[in-house]
Amino acid sequence: EPTVRTELMEQIPPIAIFLQESRPKFPTAFFEYLMPIVVRYLTDVNNQVRKAGQEALLILLEQDLVAQSDIENKVCPILLDLSAPDSDDEYKVEAVNIICKMASMLSRTTVERMLLPRFCELCSDGKLFQVRKICAANFGDICNAVGQEATERLLIPKFFELCSDSVWGMRKACAECFMAVSYATSPEVRRSKLSPLFINLISDSCRWVRQAAFQSLGPFISTFANPSSAGLYIREDGTLSIRPSTQDVNSNSCQLSNNINLTSSSTNAT
Question: Which ranges does the UniProt record give for the HEAT repeats (predicted)?
């Protein structure tokens, strides 16, 4: 029964955490018994079971419970098979979605060597616009996962393609993640390549694309600032934040110190 398999998947993460905490007693139980089940359920015939398997896998990765060898030898090959050009449409959409979510949890080397080539292929998938849209929506996360060199060499050309896609939803998704993509590139690439590309989006024929681009205009401009002087940086969740300057920190410290001194003087006076 699919409901039984779904329920089983939901219990895998807490069992894995228990086994991790009791490793001297159960040194290989997770790798021998549980991990193969998770991998197998990624290809289950029932979509609810697959969804539960994907969620369980992401929790295991987030908790750092999956060995690097299992990621490279068991998980990645399955996802590459499911996202292959001749794969079933539903499986392919699910696979690209989980590849994008996994990227931030894996090492840069693993992502660049095993998943990045397939991601680049999926950005140009002419059969399913849903696949291209997932790629566009998560483009900034992939850039952040692989770093500047791979972003400029492999991803920026794909980003240009997606920004010119015939489906307006794709162009809108690109406008929304423009800041994150820009942040992963050098100042020269921002100036010479991304700026003209952004002007195209802000002048797009679709008003939804233009609106998304205008909303991203300020964050995109902020990526041109020098982080050390402007104090701007990108958080792990992809949002722009401001780091207090040293002067502000010192000012607050002085203020705090003065308050303490005043309190102390007041206490002594009483």
Answer: 115-154
When divided into structural domains, the chain yields a total of 1
CA dihedral sign of residues 2, 4, 7, 9? negative
Enumerate the β-bridge partners of residue 233: 241
Q: Are 44 and 53 in contact (CB under 8 A)?
A: yes
For residue 177, what are the contacts with CB-CB under 8 A and spacing of at least 6? Answer: 136, 137, 138, 139, 140, 238
Quick: pLDDT tens for 26-66: 778 888 888 899 999 999 999 999 999 999 999 999 988 88
- Is 137 inside a domain boundary? no
Is residue 141 pLDDT above 70, yes or no? Answer: yes
Give the phi and the psi of residue 232 in degrees, each rounded to 5. -90, 140
163 domain-assigned:
no
Residue with tokens 């979509």: 47
Contact 144, 184 (CB under 8 A): yes
The whole domain housing 5 covers: 1-70
- Region 85-107: what's the mean pLDDT? 91
Residue 175 burial by Cβ neighbours in a 10 Å radius (0-12, 13-18, 19+): buried
pLDDT tens digits for 183-235?
A: 999 999 999 999 999 999 999 999 999 999 999 999 999 888 765 544 455 55
Cα gap 247→225, rounded to integer Å: 18
44 φ/ψ angles, rounded to the nearest 5 degrees: -60, 150
